[in-house]
Amino acid sequence: MKAHLSRRYHLAASHRLHAATYTDEQNRAVFGKCNNPHGHGHNYTIEITVSGSVDPVTGMVCNLADLDAFAQTNLLDPFDHQNLNTLFAFQRTVPSTENLSLEVHRIFESFPHAHLERVRIEETANNSFDYSGPALS
Q1: 2-131: which CATH topology?
Q2: Which residue, of 21, 42, 45, 98, has the greatest Cβ tally within 10 A?
Q3: Pick the catalytic residue: 40, 81, 109, 113?
């Protein structure tokens, strides 16, 4: 029997949407106010959905303490209250929330206690992004 568990985490971070291969004019045209040279911030809500068999003894897909510890070490500690543009993960890519979704997915793929199903990031009340991994061919 497979069940799903979703857990939400909150972090605050800033970013500037800016493509190094674009001119300043192209960046302003594509990213608008999000290209502000001083950046801007978001209070992100990140939802991680994992799945697995329900343990017959504990009744759980995985121990929440294990998931929370993994999230603290691998997501919150390195990303919370940071400028995403300065992080290694975004040295060669625009730190858009789409790309943040891919990076968070990459991180949680290595969570050993359950199978990662999906990453959902709410950037604002109106914008959310979902990533379930690369499409299988």
Answers
A1: Tetrahydropterin Synthase; Chain A (3.30.479)
A2: 42
A3: 81
- For the stretch 3-14, pLDDT in tens is 999 999 999 999
Distances (CA, A) of 64 to 27, 94, 113, 121, 136: 42, 32, 10, 19, 29
Q: How far apart are CA 21 and CA 132, in angstroms?
A: 28
Annotation says 18 is catalytic: no
pTM: predicted TM-score of the whole model, two decimal places: 0.94
Query: Rounded CA gap, 119 and 3, in Å?
Result: 16
Q: Which of 18, 42, 105, 123 is catalytic?
A: 123
Helices (H), the chain: 24-31, 64-71, 77-79, 97-108
Active site residue 123: yes
Catalytic residue among 34, 47, 115, 117: 34
Domain residue ranges in the chain:
2-131
